[in-house]
Write a structure and sequence with these properties.
Number of strands: 14
Radius of gyration: 21 Å
Shape: globular
């Protein structure tokens, strides 16, 4: 997910019949010689253009070399804008890309609106049994496949080893209590901030999961965001700020602020995912990569757990270049392409076979993140899933701004969820 990044800004949508590209999906085309396909594929990429984009553009050049009749128009769209921009273009029936890099929570939403091409039986999905079960599940809606998993991710505690050591800590904290004390020690002994918080819904989830909370009980169709466990989790976040363990974050641009503070040695710890590593290593504190530590998120009173994130490649149902789009998606999700991505920018593969690749095994960051990923909590892959973050984000902002107490914040989020999940209890 990410830099949700993501997390993700979401429109509150009405799940209903749609205009534009909805309902225009064509059957999977039959291709006798894929290498002779012609056309132009417009791809909306959501990666960070400076630190991640070059790797993906290099893959595009490889693809165009293999498929000389296909040209790829690369468009970088900020991850916090892509969902709404695609929604608007698809609804209008013009301006949508042939392929979109879709956050895992968006895929079922777009599919439910009729904006995505079904991929079952087509060439876009190659060796589906090779994909990890979690990422693959995010590509399904009503029993059909609407995307192909590109990368997967979760959150971890990312820290500056030097600052922790100067504060008297050789190892990272493993519990929230230890996190608070370590952060206070860093502040007292080094002058740097202990923990830089990101005011973002996705980044609240480890605190909620840690207390045994969640947003929804999907099996029983219940909204559970306003639970005692979640109240405790939000109280924990509020305490980290009020105690000085984490400086009071800005309600906007907090992701960029936290990343800058870490890179410049002005903060010792942040929560973030593998997508952030290529940028972090550009910071002066981590020219020596050995100074960067990665550990599981600290445990709450129940467990240590972080959300499942990631990105899929999906094809617009109204695309005029379906065969070419199939080949592009197929190429970009091969084990070889995923290994290149993992080697160069530490994004986690979605294919089991990719983890046997020497380039993947040689990346120490991937090796650290993989077991953390194995314990990540799945998010609900439902059409409304992409709408759950905005109310929670607004609540988090009101908490940080001193406008709401934890219980009041969650009560309001609960009310907003009931407007989205109308038939849930």
């Amino acid at each position: 997910m990410r830099r949700l990044l993501p997390a993700v800004a979401a429109l509150t949508l009405t799940i209903s019949a749609c205009g534009g590209g909805g309902g225009t999906a064509s059957p999977a085309p039959s291709v006798s010689d894929p290498l002779k396909i012609t056309g132009e594929v417009t791809w909306w990429d959501t990666t960070r253009p400076d630190s991640e984009g070059p790797t993906f553009q290099a893959l595009i050049k490889e693809f165009e070399g293999k498929y000389p009749g296909i040209k790829v128009k690369y468009v970088n769209v900020p991850s916090d804008q892509a969902q709404n921009q695609f929604q608007t273009a698809a609804q209008a029936g013009s301006g949508a890309p042939d392929v979109i890099r879709s956050e895992v929570a968006w895929t079922s939403q777009f599919a439910s609106l009729g904006y995505l091409q079904p991929l079952d039986g087509g060439r876009a999905v190659d060796q589906p049994d090779d994909f990890l079960a979690g990422p693959l599940s995010s590509t399904k809606y009503n029993g059909k496949t609407y995307a192909v998993p590109q990368v997967t991710d979760t959150l971890a505690l990312i820290y500056n080893k030097r600052l922790l050591k100067e504060a008297g800590h050789e190892q990272p904290p493993t519990t929230i209590a230890e996190l608070k004390q370590t952060a206070l020690d860093v502040k007292a002994k080094t002058g740097a901030a202990g923990l830089a918080l990101n005011v973002d819904s996705y980044f609240l989830l480890p605190f909620m999961y840690g207390e045994g909370g969640d947003l929804l009980d999907v099996a029983n169709k219940k909204i559970v965001v306003n639970s005692p466990a979640n109240v405790k989790a939000i109280q924990t976040v509020a305490d980290l700020i009020s105690s000085g363990a984490a400086p009071k974050p800005a309600t906007t641009e907090s992701y960029a602020n936290a990343m800058t503070a870490l890179k410049e040695g002005k903060a010792a710890m942040i929560y973030n995912g593998p997508w952030a590593l290529s940028e972090i290593y550009q910071g002066k504190e981590f020219k020596d990569k050995a100074n960067l530590g990665i550990a599981p998120v600290p445990a709450g009173s129940v467990k240590a757990a972080a959300p499942t994130g990631g990105w899929n490649l999906a094809i617009y149902a109204g695309s005029k270049n379906i065969p070419a789009a199939y080949e592009f998606v197929r190429f970009m999700t091969t084990a070889e392409a995923q290994a290149k991505i993992a080697k160069e920018i530490s994004l986690l593969p979605t294919r089991t076979s990719a983890y046997a690749n020497a380039d993947v095994q040689g990346n120490a960051d991937v090796a650290v993140f993989k077991p953390i990923m194995d314990t990540a909590v799945p998010r609900p892959w439902i059409p409304e899933g992409g709408q759950l973050f905005q109310p929670l984000l607004e609540g988090y902002q009101s908490l940080v701004g001193g406008e709401s107490a934890p219980a009041d914040m969650l009560k309001k989020v609960d009310e907003q969820y009931r407007g989205i999940m109308k038939d849930w209890s």
